[in-house]
Amino acid sequence: MKPSVFFTHSLQDPRIARILSAALAAVEPGKAVEKFLQARPLPPARRVFVLGLGKAAIAMTQTATRLVDVTRGLVITKHASPVDSDSVTVIEGGHPVPDSHSLEAGHAALDFVSALGADDLLLCLISGGGSALMTAPRVPLEDLQALTRSLLACGARIDEINTLRRHLDRVKGGGLAQATQARVISLLLSDVVGNPLEAIASGPTAPDPRGATRADAFNVLKKYGLTESIPTTILRALEEAPETPKADDPLFARVENIVIGSNALAAQAAMAQAQAGGFQAEFLGDDWQGEARETAKALCERLKTHPAIEKPLCLIAGGETTVTLRGNGKGGRNQELALAAVGELAGLENVMLVTLATDGEDGPTDAAGAVVTGETDQRARSMRLDAAQFLSRNDSYAFFSTLEDALKIGSTGTNVNDLTFLLRL
Questions:
Q1: What distances in angstroms separate CA 336 from CA 131, 354, 372, 396, one per listed residue?
Q2: Is a pLDDT exceeding 90 seen at residue 84?
Q3: How many CA atoms lie within 13 A of 340 on its CB side?
Q4: What is the reported pTM?
């Protein structure tokens, strides 16, 4: 991705644009798959089948079919595009809330893998977004949709949402591996903090942690006060559904799950580019979670209190925040974090905060994030925009679009969580 696509009204420094571009280039899905397959060829098998799942599935599958003799493939993704192989079927699912296309995809996936034999190899190429894009729920689809919307609205963490998904869906929590006799090798592009295998696309080929039970799923509902408001079918399914398979289940003797791309890898590439551009670069970790507006305060404080240095400074933080909806505005967690930072950085000279959803899409918008400087607050007020008012109604997209500081780079084809860059120039 060319650095110039990152330019906004306030971001015109090519050094910064190159840092953002380097982060995404490091987790380009096709290159990650190629690097793995060249280093470790697949084991012999009678036939090889490919199942691509997630926002990066097209690029990952395109590379696999070029390097491997694939008998047949199935791709389930958000933005469908052709794959250069007549043997590959592409299905576009719904996201972030599963829809009828996601249901179709779930049934297609089960049919696809259940037809394979013990001497076949199933290569799964899994990336973020797969939880919503493919579903075979134990409850009516509309009830699962209602639950998903409620969890998203109340600010539930993605790992909590996935705990429920794994216990309510036949293709999650190891369900896909359970449905086939084939040997399974899954290559994973992680969009989850800490890269837990069971959380990436809700772990279709991964064992659930030993302590992850139906009781944990109930506890998520209790934590957010949803036990009285969600459909009763959800509660009944949690009571009656079988426990998800754990690591000691014999089926996992024929399954490998390997992470080939992550948030930390993107951050490390950004750091290297920042250092090459003359910055002192520091990584603040890839486990930033919690409310976006609270995270904004903590990150801005790190920037404001960092000791003075001769070089320009670039702090890089990774993770995935949440947003509790308080209004009817439009935005996403990255834009909300940026909006909350406007007041924190107001009046400071030569500072900048940039938020970036690595998939290029923040919430239900065409922005990947936003850019904030010490002048943003004053410039907004001159246009009769009050950052606090926009924040109160979760309307970050309108705020930054008006300022021409929404980061609109288009779909990137990858997905490894979010990055925040804090700069002192």
A1: 23, 12, 11, 6
A2: no
A3: 25
A4: 0.85
- According to CATH, the topology of domain 29-261 is Rossmann fold (3.40.50)
Sequence-distant (≥ 6) Cβ neighbours of residue 286 within 8 angstroms:
193, 194, 262, 263, 264, 267, 317, 318, 319, 417
Residue where the block lists tokens 């990436």: 200
175-195 confidence digits (pLDDT tens):
999 999 999 999 999 998 889
Superfamily for domain range 3-26+264-424: MOFRL domain (3.40.1480.10)
Residues 6+ apart with CB under 8 A from 307: none
Taking the domains of the chain in order of start, what are their residue ranges? Answer: 3-26+264-424, 29-261
How far is 96 from 404, CA to CA, in rounded Å? 26
Q: Are 185 and 123 in contact (CB under 8 A)?
A: yes
Separation CA 79–CA 27 (nearest Å): 18
Please write the tens of the pLDDT for every residue from 302-353.
999 999 999 999 999 999 999 999 999 999 999 999 999 999 999 999 999 9
Give the residue-averaged pLDDT of 390-418: 96
Q: What angle do CA 192, 195, 201 make, to 5 degrees?
A: 55
Q: Which residues are bridge partners to 188 per DSSP?
A: 126, 259
Whether 87 shows a pLDDT value over 80: the answer reads: yes
Residue 228: CA count within 13 A, CB half-sphere: 1
Asked if 423 contacts 16 with a C-beta cutoff of 8 angstroms, the reply is: yes
Cβ neighbors of 227 (< 8 A, separation 6 or more) are 218, 221, 235
Rounded to whole angstroms, how far apart are CA atoms 263 and 418? 7
What's the confidence (pLDDT) of residue 193?
A: 87
Mean of pLDDT over the chain: 95
- Taking the C-alpha atoms of residue 93 and residue 102, their distance in angstroms, rounded to an integer, is 4
